[in-house]
Amino acid sequence: MGVSNSATLELRLIIEKLRNRFSVPDRLEGTAWSPKVMDLPPGERFLVVAPHPDDDAVGCGGSIIKLVDAGKSVRILFLSIQEGDFTRDHRKGEIQRSLGHMGVTDHVLHETPFPSAKEASRLIAQELSSGYDAVFAPSPFENHDHHLRAFEACVQALRAGGGSPDLIMYEVWGTLMPNLLIPIHDVMERKVAAVKEHATQCADIDYERVARGINGYRAAASALDGYAEAFMHMPASTVLKLF
Q1: Is the distance from CB of 190 to CB of 45 less than 8 angstroms?
Q2: pLDDT attached to residue 34
Q3: pLDDT in tens, 41-69
Q4: Residue 8: inside a domain
Q5: What CATH number does residue 75 fall under?
Q6: What SS3 class is residue 75?
Q7: CA distance 237 to 222
């Protein structure tokens, strides 16, 4: 009985959160849409907010590779580092090798457990103050508390005035409702190589399978070849109105 009550309460909380964030139209006709397909998102300078090292590669690694290859500026902010049956130096080596596959040379790694909401917001706001065209961040549909906290921290940082970039929300632990697709078929193997470098994390969950599965589905569902990454792309002003 206790487990059943707990599950029911959790479901009610999830439903309430969604009701608070999304309104349901009286008539649903015409509310379906096809995501816009773009080779690259607009902009020159991009920040990637990753709750942990590996979320960047799994969630938007293909797009990161394409942006770097196109000469765009990409900086990754890792809000925390995982702990487990491995040394800190070993984990940092995995992170560096993964970044190497993506061509990323600019990143900051906070070698601590996941920060408080206030601290996460402060770290992101500090980054935004230097000016970016867009920020990649976990979506509000993620089924992981750190990912949801990272999203909320991004919203709070935007609200605090830390710049006004677009928000490009990615998916790892939960599928989102995309309005943007980036085809990544030509760089998929480089993305997979970046994901597989996180061997300590892939030991428990097959993140290569996760990436191939969700990126393959996104491409197939939009009649694209190979693989694609899906995003919710919104101006900061829209994000602040919705959330």
Answers
A1: no
A2: 83
A3: 999 999 999 999 999 999 999 999 999 99
A4: no
A5: 3.40.50.10320
A6: strand
A7: 28
Q: Does residue 46 fall inside a structural domain? A: yes
Lookup: tokens for 189: 């193997």
| 3-class DSSP assignment, residue 109 | strand
Confidence of residue 31 (pLDDT cuts 50, 70, 90): low
Domain enclosing residue 128, as ranges: 37-242
pTM: 0.88
pLDDT band (50, 70, 90) for residue 217: very high
Whose tokens are 């970046």? That residue is 194
Q: At what angle do helices 207-221 and 55-69 cross, to 10 degrees?
A: 60
Neighbour tally for 69: CB within 10 Å:
14
Residue 17 forms part of a structural domain: no
Would you state the structure tokens that stand for residue 186, as one six-digit string? 């030509």
Number of domains within the chain: 1
Which whole-number Å values give the CA distances from 83 to 77, 96, 191, in the listed order? 18, 17, 23
In a domain, 29, yes or no: no
